[in-house]
Amino acid sequence: MAEPYGPWRLDDFESKLHEWGPTVPLPGEVYAEVERWITTRADRPRGGAVLVDGEENVWQAPVTYLPDLDSALQRVVCAYRIIEAEHRIVCELFSILPTSIDPEADT
Q1: Is there a domain that residue 35 lies in?
Q2: Phi/psi of residue 31, nearest 5 degrees
Q3: pTM of the model as a whole
Q4: DSSP codes joined into one string, 11-51
Q5: Which pLDDT tens digit goes with each residue over 5-49?
């Protein structure tokens, strides 16, 4: 369902990605996938996201998977604040979390 006020304004996503990117070994294709994911927030800010416990209107969403050196899976996630009154979304951070979820299950 489309949002009643059009696409949400996205703030700080690119800057947080550029701050975080050099701190982790992201292959180029993963970095590009994260950039593509960012654009999805403008139309579906809560799509696939969950509220972060103890935070007011901060959401965490899975972005993509990143295989580590031991062939275990890690998931790139993003936390962001939704500011309803201003119809904008502000990126808080990108991070990598371990996961036992099979990426094929997401398809």
Answers
A1: yes
A2: -60, -45
A3: 0.81
A4: ESHHHHHHHHGGGTT--HHHHHHHHHHHHHTTT-TTTT-EE
A5: 678 999 999 999 999 988 887 788 888 999 999 999 999 999 999
Domains: count for the chain? 1
Of 58 and 29, the structure prediction assigns the larger pLDDT to 58
Domain containing residue 58: CATH number: 3.30.2310.20
Token representation of residue 15: 């800057």
Closest CA to 91 of 13, 39, 7: 13
Q: Residues with Cβ < 8 Å from 64, sequence gap 6 or more?
A: 30, 33, 34, 37, 75, 76
Q: Does any domain span residue 31? A: yes
Residues 6+ apart with CB under 8 A from 44: none
CB atoms within 10 A of CB 63: 22
86 domain residue, yes or no? yes
Q: Which domain holds residue 87?
A: 9-99
Q: Is residue 106 part of a domain?
A: no
Question: Max Cα separation, the chain?
Answer: 45
